[in-house]
Amino acid sequence: VCNEIYVEMRKMARQMERHDVMLRVNPEVVKALKANNARWLQEMEELAGKTIIVKSDPVLHQEQFDIN
After folding, report:
1. Which H or E run includes 53?
2. What angle in degrees, to the nearest 10, is found between the helix axes of 2-12 and 27-48?
3. What is the pLDDT of residues 3-21, one digit of tens each?
4. Are 42 and 54 spatial neighbours (Cβ–Cβ below 8 Å)?
C-alpha cells in the first residue's frame, strides 16, 4: 500500500496548490508509514514538496487511502 500511495502522490504532486496534504489511511498503514524513522513519509514529503498530515481512519480497509 505504501508504494501505491507513493505513486499516487507522485501523480498528484504538481496539481496540489495547498502547502499541506491530508492522507487518510487505515491505522495499520499509519504504522507502516511511520516505521524506519518515517522513511516513507519523508520521501513523499520531499517528492510533493509539501507537509503530509497522516490521519488514521479505522473505517478504511488496509488497501484503501484518500489524499486531499
Report:
1. strand 51-56
2. 30
3. 999 999 888 877 878 788 9
4. no
Closest CA to 27 of 2, 59, 5: 59
CATH fold for domain 2-67: Hypothetical Protein Ychn; Chain: A, (3.40.1260)
Whole-model pTM: value is 0.85
Locate all alpha helices (DSSP H) within the chain, ordered by sequence.
2-12, 27-48
Contact 21, 57 (CB under 8 A): no
Residue corresponding to grid cell 487518510: 24
- Residue 53 pairs in a beta bridge with 22
At residue 7, the 3 state secondary structure works out as: helix
